[in-house]
Write a structure and sequence with these properties.
The chain is α+β, with helices and mostly antiparallel strands. It folds into 2 domains: 3-231, Aminohydrolase, N-terminal nucleophile (Ntn) domain (Glutamine Phosphoribosylpyrophosphate, subunit 1, domain 1); 246-432, Rossmann fold (3-Layer(aba) Sandwich). Helices cover 29% and strands 25% of the residues. It has 17 helices and 23 strands. It has helices at residues 13-23, 51-54, 57-61, 108-117, 129-137, 143-151, 196-201, 237-243, 255-269, 285-295, 333-336, 352-363, 395-398, 401-408, 418-423, 435-438, 448-453, and strands spanning 2-8, 31-37, 42-48, 67-73, 88-92, 95-105, 156-163, 168-172, 181-185, 188-192, 204-208, 214-218, 221-225, 235-236, 249-250, 253-254, 276-279, 303-305, 329-331, 340-345, 368-373, 412-415, 432-433. The strands form 6 sheets. A 7-stranded antiparallel β-sheet has the order 3-2-4-1-10-9-11. A 6-stranded antiparallel β-sheet has the order 5-6-7-8-12-13. Strands 17-20-21-22 form a 4-stranded parallel β-sheet, with helices on both faces. Helix 5 crosses helix 6 (143-151) and helix 9 (255-269) crosses helix 10 (285-295). The radius of gyration is 23 Å and the shape is globular. Bound molecules: adenosine monophosphate. Adenosine monophosphate is lined by residues 242, 280, 283, 345-354, 386-388.
Length: 456
């Protein structure tokens, strides 16, 4: 889970990248960085924290030039440390190279040990650094060929932005796990994880970078290449369910539209008599609207979310302990009291949030609480870039739906079916990775057997 942004051919490249990263804040909140090029040198500002906190005017002023790439990080491999923040910037025999990666690579520990055996020194624990080493060691001459050379041994999920002093390259892995878009801002080219960035900077959407496509932008303009063998498309369905912003398009669809359709389908599959439908904000809002429209049950904002919860909140030691979800969500008693409530969230991971929400709704006087989830049970961890816990910590991996319902202390609990979810996509229904719901991992990963056996 990360957000990436790139721009070529703009006199204020870093300032635009800053705005682009701002629109991608939801994709990663641990660190933020921009690397820019003035045509001769690459300049880097990469720090821990949120985009608006990291980039003061002073720091942006240290990023001159007409090319820039940026990255917001949410760690999936490698600890949350500055040395693991991106974009990575290195100097090697042919000049400077910077790289920003969204996704997760699944075969790098073997490649990394091989490289180390031949003397490579790594400065981070990130999977991404392996790509930099492979590009640097390639015998090919042109950057494009070096990149293709490196990526042909890499497996897993990657949307990548790579830049040198005078070139910007964008790549989406052959399965297309993570999104990547191409746009134009007057005479300059932009690339970003989601289209909401283009709305902010007023860029025109050109198209989605295709799975397996390499886009090269330099002084000769833009060229597209398809150098990899064709693979089964496996776009991440969880981007639609939870991760992407609803005002974005990804994988050719509006995220908001798909979320509403998930809610409509959930209503068709799991009928229940109730007085109101309420979302767990923010991610449950579009699905609840869809559910409400389909079921003909009024939509209400029965839970309000505080948008000011910092990541570093410290709980008081005594007195009022375990704020937990209360810090983030509060129930509107006047809406809830005396009602039969359907509460909709996008997913249950460990089950702790839903359990607290059910209690909060009961404490606010709900007569009945029916939990509805606008995705199938999350039974398997993701190895392609979404941060999910080990299988044993996923409540749906170890409990039946009845047992989960009891744990939540809900009156009823239903999830969306996998079929119902996929049918929304009609003719593109086979183009998704659904491993988190069915364990069908499209790319084998190191330790796969261990991960699958972990449960038993
Ligand atoms: P849990 O309490 O572990 O069951 O978490 C469920 C909540 O986490 C739901 O409200 C989801 O919207 C949210 N969620 C789902 N996937 C993720 C993720 N990968 N990272 C952070 N939050 C998530």
């Amino acid at each position: 889970m990360c957000g990436i942004f790139g721009i070529y051919g703009h006199p204020e490249a870093a300032n635009i990248a800053y705005l682009g990263l701002h629109a991608l804040q939801h994709r990663g909140q641990e660190s933020s960085g921009i690397v820019s090029s003035d045509g001769k040198y690459l300049h880097s500002e990469v720090h821990m924290g949120l985009v608006a906190d990291v980039f003061s005017q002073e720091r942006l002023d240290k990023l001159p030039g007409y090319i820039a790439i940026g990255h917001n990080r949410y760690s999936t491999t490698g600890a949350s440390l500055l040395k693991n923040a991106q974009p990575i910037l290195v100097d090697y025999s042919r000049g400077s190279l910077s790289l920003a990666h969204n996704g997760n690579l699944v075969n790098v520990s073997y490649i990394r040990s091989e490289l180390e055996a031949y003397g490579s020194i790594f400065r981070s624990t990130m999977d991404t650094e392996v790509i930099v080493h492979l590009i640097a060691q390639s015998k090919e001459d042109k950057l494009l060929n070096r990149v293709v050379d490196a990526l042909s041994v890499i497996k897993g999920a990657y949307s990548l932005l790579i830049m040198t002093e005078n070139e910007l390259i964008g790549v989406r892995d052959p399965h297309g796990f993570r999104p990547l878009w191409l746009g134009k801002l007057k005479d300059s080219y932009v690339m970003a994880s989601e289209t909401c960035t283009f709305d902010l900077i007023e860029a025109k959407i050109e198209r989605e970078v295709e799975p397996g496509e390499v886009v090269v932008i330099n002084r000769n303009g833009i060229q597209s290449y398809k150098p990899f063998p064709v693979s089964k498309i496996a776009q991440c369905i969880f981007e639609f369910i939870y991760f992407a912003r609803p005002d974005s398009d990804i994988f050719g669809e509006s995220v908001n539209f798909i979320r509403q359709e998930l809610g409509r389908q959930l209503a068709r599959e799991t009928k229940v008599d109730a007085d109101i439908v309420i979302p767990v904000p923010d991610s449950g809002v579009p699905a609840s609207l869809g559910f409400s429209l389909e079921a003909g049950i009024p939509f209400e904002m029965g839970l309000i979310r505080s948008h000011y919860v910092g990541r570093t909140f410290i709980e008081p030691k005594d007195a009022i302990r375990h704020f937990g979800v209360k810090l983030k969500l509060n129930a509107v008693k006047k809406v809830i009291a005396g009602k039969r409530v359907i509460v909709i969230d996008d997913s249950i991971v460990r089950g702790t949030t839903s359990r607290k929400i059910v209690k909060m709704l009961r404490d606010s006087g709900a007569k009945e609480v029916h939990v509805r989830i606008s995705s199938p049970p999350t039974t398997h961890p993701c190895f392609y870039g979404i941060d999910t816990p080990n299988r044993k910590d996923l409540i749906a991996a170890t409990h039946t739906i009845d047992e989960i319902c009891k744990y939540l202390t809900a009156d009823s609990l239903s999830y969306l079916s996998i079929e119902g979810m996929l049918n929304i996509f009609k003719e593109t229904r086979d183009n998704f990775c659904t491993a988190c719901f069915d364990g069908n991992y499209p790319v084998k990963f190191e330790g796969m057997e261990d991960a699958q056996l972990e449960l038993f």
